[in-house]
Design a protein that fits this description.
Blueprint (H helix, E strand, L loop, with lengths): L1 E11 L17 E4 L3 E6 L2 E7 L8 E5 L21 E4 L1 E2 L2 E2 L9 E13 L6 E11 L6 E13 L3 E12 L8 E2 L5 E4 L5 H4 L8
Antiparallel strand pairs: 1-12, 2-3, 3-4, 4-5, 6-14, 7-8, 7-13, 9-10, 10-11, 11-12
Length: 205
């Protein structure tokens, strides 16, 4: 079984009170990886932080900034501790990868692939892929292999993040059933101030 899922998220900042003037001599974008996080920075400021280790149950985008520097994501709000910034989770057979209880499945980051930073692009194009194993909680058996590819582009007016996921059943595994209950798929927790005032547009308009 193979699933190809792609989501494009665009953020256009319109609130003038959040704006600031960028220097004409902007620094080249940088990409760095430590033991826990991957960071993509423009002008020395991390505009995207991807947490892949020391996470409760799944890797996720922890920080995503607007061009003016506002992080639009919330991580583990008090009433939904299992909601992390921008994340992806499903139910695989009877194993829940969303809720993060002690009996739920875990997404285990294995390695980064296709890491690329295009410093010649005036909008600062950065991309990386993460290989992830979806494991059962008790047996640690791998149900799915995921290749997750994220691409970040930023201009003075728009931050554009493209998320592409390919899921395959683990080698020598029987076909699996994927789905979810009330919430599943790609989840994004915005700033609370955007809950009523933000404008959200689907791909079909």
């Amino acid at each position: 079984m193979r699933i190809n899922m792609k989501l494009t998220v665009a953020v256009l900042l319109l609130c003038l009170s959040w704006r600031h003037v960028h220097s004409q001599n902007t620094n080249s974008p940088t990409l760095s990886i430590d033991q826990k996080e991957l960071k993509i920075a423009f002008d020395g400021r991390p505009d995207l932080i991807y947490s892949f280790r020391s996470v409760p149950a799944k890797p996720y985008v922890k920080v995503l900034r607007s061009p003016s520097g506002v992080n639009i994501l919330r991580d583990a709000p008090h009433d939904h501790l299992h909601h992390h910034g921008l994340m992806f989770a499903l139910k695989v057979n009877e194993h829940d990868f969303w809720s993060e209880t002690s009996t739920d499945g875990r997404q285990i980051h294995k390695t980064f692939q296709d890491v690329d930073l295009n410093v010649e692009d005036q909008n600062g194009l950065a991309t990386f892929a993460s290989a992830i194993d979806w494991e059962e909680a008790a047996s640690k058996k791998v149900l799915l292999n995921e290749k997750r590819k994220l691409t970040l582009t930023r201009s003075k007016e728009v931050t554009l993040l493209t998320w592409n996921t390919i899921l395959k059943t683990a080698p020598k595994r029987e076909p699996v059933k994927i789905g979810g209950d009330h919430f599943f798929g790609l989840g994004m927790r915005f700033l609370q101030s955007m809950d009523k005032n933000g404008t959200f547009t689907y791909a079909d308009g």
